[in-house]
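We modelled the chain as a single entity of 256 amino acids. Its sequence is:
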Amino acid sequence: MHSVTTMIDGHVAIVTFANPAHNHATLAMIAAIGAAFDAADADPAVRAILLRSEGRVFCAGADLVNANPVEDGVVPGARNPFYVAAARLFAVKTPVVAAVQGAAVGAGLGLALVADFRVATPAARFVANFVQIGFHPGFGISAVLERVIGRQRALLMALTARRIRGDEAAAWGLADAVVDADALYDTALGLAREIAAGAPLAVGSTRATMRGDLHALVLAQTDHELAEQAWLQTTEDFAEGVRAVAERRPGRFVGR
């Protein structure tokens, strides 16, 4: 069972999610994080959000082997509930700092990209692993990632599924700071407090100008991502990719 809790520390809302053991992204968990963000936005005392998770992994993405939220509950001709919930996160009005330990893979990478800033550990790894399972990127990653690290590096991550670890992520701008695991929480909270110390109206106005309407962008992009994912899920390569993940081996793809 997932859990999402919020603790208030001065002007910072600390939103902590957990879905043991790998913090897989589910519709219920993403919706609960969205509700926590809405509550923070509605609280005039909250001026920044710290997003963090419990355990050794930030978020290992959607569990495509056992419970695929991208496929479940989809009504033909309607928007995917999982991606509607994902897009809602990008509508948050309060600045967000993410503390990233371990893996941020697939939808977990998308969740990290919701934040304005990411503080990571050296062992953190950011991975767009979709092609390794015969799939198309989702969660708005195909639109948002290049805004953070540039088109070439985003394309490299998307087409190779390369693991980008903490120090390289910092060099690319994917992480804003890299600290030892025992300093992760305090460093991320410190950055959130630093943001919260600014004049809140000015911070909100400046962020809105520079961030733009990511909600609309991601909502539109996930419509396209879902269409590509829909036909790819019918291919032999996708079935092989899912098997390969379950069996912890490289995929043997045939282009069908």
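As a brief sanity check on the tokenised model: Residues 75 and 149 are 34 Å apart (CA to CA). The two ends are 36 Å apart (CA to CA).
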